[in-house]
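# step 3/5: fold
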Amino acid sequence: MKNLTIGFIGTGKMGEALIRGMINAGLVKPERVCASDIDEQKLSTMAEELGIVVSCDNLHTLEKADVVVLAVKPQIIRYVLQGIKESIIKEHLFISIAAGVNIDSLADELPGGTRIVRVMPNICATVGEAASAICPGDAATEADVETTRKILGSVGRTVVVDEHLMDAVTGLSGSGPAFVFMIIEALADGGVHQGLDRITAQTLAAQTVLGAAKMVLESGQHPGELKDMVTSPGGTTIRGIEALEKRKVRGAVMSAVIAASERSRELGK
């Protein structure tokens, strides 16, 4: 991995998060990272802070890179690929983080046999805690998947899924942070209602969600088991759970994931 040069076409929030994550994790040396973007000021700042190679020319990035991460907006990805297609060689691996753009659509704009891996990360990559789903194209090798896992693993956890499940991933982990932010806000509101100041309530709510998530991931136990560990007979927690169940919170959260997944499916048509 350290002998590969990783190129980024696009340095928006997600692209920048991946670049910083790889470098901070020691995955690659800064001089082995190159990036191109239309934002010259952004490139200049990243070059100065991180020591990466930058350019406003996508072809410059392509020519230097072994792995090319497509981190541009979905609506311009076709235009971007058309501009570099003639210079792509078989040694290139393309990793796309463009939301909603399937592998077939990418393949249509690339030379036949190009190795493609599609990835769906989420906004939590900006704090190194992304949940990313990886889907390899037909030409991608196991080594390509492993390379992708290392890159995305520098900013969080990864799973490999079949492409037909990418809409479900979008609804769950893609949109999920917004749902969790609402839950954190609601927890804090409850604390404020009971007399806590806003900052204290928000800190307690956010840390509670963070700690609970860490328990699920590190213990390997079912969330229901962990819930029961906190729930004493006739205690405060079971009274609160009763209130949640009466208001069908579980069903509401499930419906949110399903609705977001269905919308992703609609947008992909």
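# step 4/5: annotate
The two ends are 36 Å apart (CA to CA).
# step 5/5: archive (pending)
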